[in-house]
Amino acid sequence: WKLTRRKIDLAVLFPNSFRSALIAWLGRCQRRIGYARQGRSWLLSDALSPVLDRDGRITPSPILDAYNQLAIRAGTPPPGHQMELFTTPRDESAADAIWERTRLCNYPEVVCLNPGAAFGAAKFWPAEYFARLARELAQKRGCGILVLCGPTERPICRQIVQQAGIPQVVGLHDAELSLGLTKACIRRADLLVTTDSGPRHFAAAFGRRVVTLFGPTHIAWTETYHPLAVHLHKPVECGPCQQRVCPLGHHRCMRELMPETVLNAALRLLAWPAPGWKEQRHTA
């Protein structure tokens, strides 16, 4: 009822849920823009059609494009695909401290590894694979490796560092964690290797090289159009299943994506020039 009192002129509904449209309708928002999903078209003033195949079924397509279409219907100029993201001086100071404490500043390159995935266990790439990748990158490129993590991912971060077993591989498992720290670390890295999770979008927004490991999810849903991105996916008969936990228990879509494949992709990507790299690396 707070919406009713505020007399909202426009509600742009990014979620496709019935509930979000119902709230906007009950709140008497004058215009309610959203996609015709979940049987909610009658609740919308502007019901956009999702991308359908020839049989009328919803087909995977970039959410970025879908959101842009909502913004255009609301009256904005076409937003384009270039995302923007910023860090604060506090974020950068925290990353500076990590670089100094772990001596990452002594390496010509720093590669960040992100093993976490809030979506669920189905997106995880084995810790031992990350450890092998870290060792190989450090040996072949002479780079430092920083393993990122969130609060619940400290154990896997620590496991990867321990299994890598070389001083070039360090992690955030004992650090004071924050989203800002993760952003600042990715912003100054030469490459991010990550599961299909939020940090890959940080890399795209900061113009960083990124290798993303896909398993149970459709690549098409989260396409970023980032020119320095490589998507790796091991096709299996049962996927992509879009499930949070492997329903068959074998997790082949991630286990059969081998470290050698990821290493080769990372080495190729590190050979690509990154536009504006030096200027961006040290800006506040």
The CATH topology of the largest domain is what?
A: Rossmann fold
Oligomer: single chain
Distance between the termini: 42 Å
Report the CATH architecture of the largest domain. 3-Layer(aba) Sandwich
> From the helix content, strand content and strand pairing, which structural class follows?
alpha/beta
Supply the CATH superfamily name of the largest domain.
Glycogen Phosphorylase B
Run of helices and strands: HEHEEHHEHEHEHEHEEHHH
The percentage helix is 25-40%
Number of helices: 11
CATH class division of the largest domain: Alpha Beta
Report the sheet with the most strands, covering strand number, pairing sense and barrel closure: 6 strands, parallel
Q: How would you describe the overall organization of this protein?
A:
- The protein has 284 residues and is an alpha/beta fold.
- The chain folds into two domains: 2-73, no CATH class; 89-281, Rossmann fold (3-Layer(aba) Sandwich), CATH 3.40.50.2000.
- It contains eleven helices and nine strands.
- It has helices spanning 2-6, 18-26, 63-73, 89-102, 127-141, 154-164, 179-187, 198-206, 252-255, 259-270, 277-281, and strands spanning 10-12, 31-35, 46-48, 110-114, 144-147, 169-171, 191-195, 209-214, 229-233.
- The strands form two sheets. Strands 6-5-4-7-8-9 form a six-stranded parallel sheet, sandwiched between helices. A three-stranded parallel sheet has the order 1-2-3, sandwiched between helices.
- Helix 8 links the parallel strand 7 and strand 8 (209-214).
- The longest helix is centred in the middle third of the chain and has 15 residues, at 127-141.
